[in-house]
Structure formats: C-alpha cells, structure tokens
Amino acid sequence: MTPPVTDTNKLRQEPDYPWADTLPALGHTTSVAPGVRWLRMPLPFALNHVNLWLLRDQLEGPDGSLQGWTAVDCGIADDTTRAAWEQVMATELDGLPVLRVLVTHMHPDHVGLAHWLTQRWSHPASAIDPGFECRLWMSATDFAAARLGSRADTAMGGDAAAAFVASHGLTDAHALAQIRARARYYASMVPQVPATYCRLMDGGVVDIGSTRSGGRHAWQCLAGYGHAPEHIALYSPALHVLIAGDMLLPRISTNVSVDHLEPEANPLALFLASLERMRALPADTLVLPSHGKPFRGLHARIDQLQQHHADRLAEVMAACAMEPRTAADLLPVLFRRPLDVHQTTFAMGESIAHLNALWHEGRLQRQRDQGVYRFSPAAR
C-alpha cells in the first residue's frame, strides 16, 4: 500500500521517509507504489547495497501479449547477487517472467548482471515465447561505455589512472599500486554486456504497466549528467514516482568525479544543472533512489545538495587562497573521515571535479610544476 502524501510545508524543510523502518530482505521485495516493487542487492564496498526496482509490465511478443516485469538496474555480477535474483524470480514475480531490463547508467552495480538477466529470460527454457528476446534498455552513451569497459582487452584504470591521480598530487605508494592493479576492475563486475539494446533518450517516454494490474503508465526519461555519461532517470506523472538512480540520493551526495579519460571535464557544473532541471517535478514526488531509502521532499533534497556543493567550493577557494593546492592536498578539506583505497580513488575524482569547476569559472588558475597540477586564485 502506498503511504499518504506528506504535508507540502514539511517537504520544503526536510525529506520524509515513508519506509523509515522497512528494508526488503535479501531475495524479497517490498511494494512502494501500484505495480512497483523495491529490492536490495548487497555490494562489497563501504556503500554496501544498491536498490533495484521491479515494474509490473506487459509487452507484445511474436505470438501475442506477454505479462511480466521490467527490471530497473541489476546489481554487480557475482554469485551472491545471482543467487538473490534466483530467489526473487522464484518467489516474488507471481510466476511471471522478466520482459526487459532497463538500466539507469553504466556503473557496475547497475549494469553488472544485465547480460545474465537478458539471457536468462530470452532462452526458450525461460517459458516465455521461444521467439521473444528480453532486451536491455539504456542510453546510447552509457551502453557504449559499459561495452567498452567490459572488454577483456580494455583497461578502465591501471597505469593511466594512477598517473592521472599522481599528476594531481597523490603520492601514497600503496594507493598508487592499488590503483595500477585495478586495470580490469570494471570488467570483474561487468564481465559482459548485451550486444544489442533499445535506446533511452532525454524526453523519451517508455510505456510500462499491465492492463491486468493497475494499467499502463507513461514513464518519462530524464537524462542527467556529471555522475555518468548519460544517466537516465524515470518519472511517472500518474504515479508521482521518480526512479532517480544515482542522481538524487537521500543521505549521501552523489559521486561526481573527473578521471583520466576526460581530464579537463567539468562534471560538477553538469550535475548541478541536472539537479536543477529535476526541480520541475512536483514536490510530492516519491523518489526511489539507488542507495538509501525511498523519500518525499525532492525540492528540499535538491536544495541540500546544491548547498553542500556550494559550501565545498567555498572551502576549496579558501584553501587555495592560503597557498597553491593539489587535489590530494584538498582531501582532508573535502572528506573529514579516513578513506580506504577504493574511497580514495573516488575522493580524488571529486576533489579534481571541484577544482575543475572553479577553474572553468575562471576563479582558479592551475599551473603544472614537475608534473603536478596546483591551483590558486586567478589574477583579477
């Protein structure tokens, strides 16, 4: 049963959590809206879970209408996640198949098992129509990035990534060795991506739902930038539900990073602009995030995230005004907790993103000395 809409006066102040004391157990689901179910999969990181969504659906197959589900995001490719999916498919789908797999973006916790799931439900043994193919739906940019990253001959990290963070001041030998060793890290969690897909685009509409179970609804595609190349969130006006992916998280700020593949990028400006476009959605929208719990208070959370980054940018400016700083110098300024190697990699990307944002605005200048970039206030 869907909880009642929260008072809009409260929405302006603080996000509200209708399922504050509820978490789906591994291999089980929780209903959060008509035809929408929430499930969680474990992750082997400090951020130890990802939320996935099942939408009751029907599609036209070669021999007529097929009843089933659309899965939104997949989890990483490991035995624990596969086993949890098998339990979900055995006990939570009302005996119906997965008809399509819709992926918000190319990060491993979202696309890792897309190939396995689509193959699992395209084989004749799946008991769907033998001529039916369970297809991946995804943005073109993220599909291409995921395909590239999953290739055995492609290094998404390794020496190039280590050299990049070293050029921004990271000198810890252990951390650099760990980054070099992660050349095939992405492919270890995304070993294969389907060869074909259906393209999702900003402004597009995907009809999802079943005439036998609550009707069909138009889900609007909202592209977001800065966290991934072309992240797609989904909004249903009829249900007042936003499947936000990683663009809008309730308790933590989305990772916005610069990496060695696009060293002069300005993802923070792109991310903040994407957030602002989401403000056009109604205040009572139920937000389904990829991490944390579903919440209402979309506008309040956008305000919080914008203020968070404004504060961090002010702190970066103040630190650089004291003396020229590298991105590594700014880690204690931006992150006030111990960081493991996995977190340090993301933290360096975030630090560079904040510096690049100020550099692109003309508020900072950068100079390279002995192969290392340092940033200081631009001359006026």
Explain this structure.
With 380 residues, this protein is an alpha/beta fold. It has one domain: Ribonuclease Z/Hydroxyacylglutathione hydrolase-like (Metallo-beta-lactamase, Chain A, 4-Layer Sandwich), CATH 3.60.15. Helices cover 33% and strands 24% of the residues. The protein has a seven-stranded mixed beta sheet with strand order 1-2-3-4-5-6-7. Strands 8-9-10-11-12-13 form a six-stranded mixed beta sheet. The protein has a two-stranded antiparallel ribbon with strand order 14-15. The relative contact order is 0.13.
Mean pLDDT: 92
How many distinct folded domains? 1
Computed structural class:
alpha/beta
Radius of gyration: 21 Å
- The CATH topology is given as Metallo-beta-lactamase, Chain A
> Helix proportion of residues, in percent?
25-40%
Task: Record keyword descriptors for this entry.
single chain, alpha/beta, Metallo-beta-lactamase, Chain A, 33% helix, six-stranded mixed beta sheet, disordered N terminus, 380 residues, seven-stranded mixed beta sheet
